[in-house]
Amino acid sequence: WTPAPTEDPWAVKRQELLRRINECEKDPANWTLEELPDTYKAWYRISEPDCVVDGLARAVAWYMLVYAGGYTFEEAAEALGFDRFPIMYPAAGTRFPFKTPKGVWQAANTNLPYYPGMRMWLTNEKGEPALPIFYPKGCYYARHLQGGIWRDWREWYGAPFLVQCYVVADEWRYSLVIQTDERKVAFDIENFQDANIATRIRHVYIYAYDLERGWYLLGGYITDDRFSITPEELNISSWPLTSEHQRVIREWDRQDVVWGPEWLKETWGLEPRPLPENVEILTTKQEWKIFWKDILRFFKGKWPERTEYYWAFKEPPKR
Asked: Where does the pLDDT of residue 7 fall: very low under 50, low under 70, confident under 90, or very high at 90 and above?
């Protein structure tokens, strides 16, 4: 007697969601962007078609899994139906443009490097996997107004994307665990000695959209908006929605616009991989730097396929 193969109960739902995303309107010229309240006038929400936001959320889910959920790049891509990684690595020495309240800025790319078989987890105060909570801050067309004329960034910077979105990630984390084929290590990111304190860190990620690639991650940075919280002040294990998250839900007029562990499970049927056993604890930042340097050395010099994901921005014309 051979038991019947266990069917994935989420397969049908995932296929339906992928069909919805793949059949969504591709041209941003046909999207509806509405101004968000309480933000400066360069940021908007994508209101129609709503499947556009589903596509953005799918790209965010991929990063959530590889950055904090213990998935390899390939596993996360397969689970979410991507035929290529939704991440971009601009050529060395180049910068990507994005909008701020003070105008158009350019930032160097600091994306997570690729390393074969690498798995990463963020952990909470109980030593369990702890996924961040992501949400969109605002989106805009890739252009800026200068001298009464709209400057398209495809011509101005040589950038391929048509739309950008600010995506914020709130993290409550104690340590980072990384597993490769060679080692399994853990590092207390903030070097806290008090095991009862967790650190909340807020990342900002810039996602971009173009007609060829769809949505993908351009890069990100850590903001200065960080503070410590204790389990008594906030039960971080339950990942509650903060007032900030509730505000985003109201402004975007949809419940599924805050993307955390519960959303990932309810939407895609996915959860973090189990943490590895017998992990080596790195106790100093120097040990961590040596370990991470090996990852970066491979990424920069031994992965020729990465050039597929590169492009270079032109220097802005002289004013």
From this structure: low
Q: Which residue has the tokens 């690639």?
A: 213
Dist CA 88 CA 208 (whole Å):
9
Q: Rounded to whole angstroms, what are the CA distances from 168 to 13, 20, 162, 214?
A: 27, 25, 20, 19
Distance CA 122, CA 222 (A): 16
Q: What is the pLDDT of residues 219-241, one digit of tens each?
A: 887 665 554 444 444 444 444 56
CA–CA gap between residue 23 and residue 18 (Å, rounded) = 8
pLDDT value at 312 more than 70: no
Output the six-digit token pair for 253.
Answer: 């007029």
Strand partners, 133: 170
> Phi and psi of 164, rounded to 5°?
-125, 155
Per-residue pLDDT at 91: 64
Q: Are 252 and 45 in contact (CB under 8 A)?
A: yes
Four-CA torsion 248, 252, 256, 257, nearest 10 degrees:
-50
Phi then psi for 257, rounded to 5 degrees? -105, 0
Number of Cβ within 10 Å of residue 122's Cβ equals: 23
pTM: 0.86
Residues ≥6 apart with Cβ < 8 Å to 171: 68, 122, 130, 132, 200, 201, 202, 203
Note every long-range contact of 24-31, with CB atoms under 8 Å and residues 24 or more positions apart, other chains counting: 24/49, 24/51, 24/52, 24/54, 24/55, 25/49, 25/51, 25/52, 26/211, 27/211, 28/141, 28/162, 28/163, 28/209, 31/163
